[in-house]
Structures are given as structure tokens and as C-alpha cells.
Amino acid sequence: MQVHRAVEDSGLAELVAVMPGTPEHLRALRSALGLRMRLLSDPGWAVHGMLGLDQGGLRKVFLSPAAWWTFLRVFLRVIHRGRLRRPTESVLPLGGTAVIDAAGTVVSVYRSANPGDSPDPAEVVARLADIDTQHQ
């Protein structure tokens, strides 16, 4: 969540999440988690594969202490809102953060090592600022 807040606060880019669920599922997820960003549906995991993001496996996804804290935070947020649902797609693929310029070129990709892993928000914003400077 720190990365998405830093990107939004910078005003340098629009934050978009690409996820495997159906559009209906993603609308419900967005509402349940109180997300403001746009969620795009990719049920075939095409974007995930194109960016070279990892299939985490049971060890990385469920046996990582960092993952436990991430799951606990999400679980508590969802429980608080009373909208806990069983996953409808695989929970093993890991996420990442891609910076894509206005022309659609993938400038950088951070590949998460476990579900709780995300890039340093300051590095993402710095990369966005570099792109903004190049396009002025």
C-alpha cells in the first residue's frame, strides 16, 4: 500500500492494478478494500507472464513470515468490512510493480519475492520523475 500512496501523492502517474479476477469480482474487491486505483481484469494471467512475474509456490506464498503479515493485514481489513470471500483464482502467483511510460514501454519491473514484498516507494517515484523529466 505504501507504493500506491507514494505514486498517487506524487501526481506523476496513474496507478493501475492488473489482477486475474473477473470485472465483477474486481469491482467487489475494490469496494471491500476501499481501493481508489483502477483494477484491470486479466483472467488468463497474460500480463503477469509478459512481465516475467513468478509463480510463488507454496513455500514462498504460505511459509514466508512477510507473507503472514500481509495476509493478516488484508484479512483484518476485509473482516472489518464484513466481506470475506473464498478466492476464485490461484493465490500462488506473486505480484510485482511495473513502471510503464506514456508510449506503453515497460521501463522497469520489480518482481516480488513473496506476497509481502514490494519496492521502495521512493525508488518508484524517482523512476516516475525520471520519465516525466525525459518527456518534457
The N- to C-terminal Cα distance equals 29 Å
Helix content: 40-55%
- Rough shape? globular
Give the number of domains.
1
On the 0 to 100 scale, the average pLDDT is 78
Number of strands: 4
What is the ordering of alpha helices and beta strands? HEHEHHHEEH
- Our estimate of the beta-strand percent is 5-15%
> Rg, please?
15 Å
**What is the overall number of helices?**
6
Unreliable stretches covering 5 or more consecutive residues: none
Task: Classify the secondary structure makeup into a structural class.
Answer: alpha+beta
Strand order of the largest sheet: 1-2
Main sheet: strands, sense, barrel:
2 strands, parallel
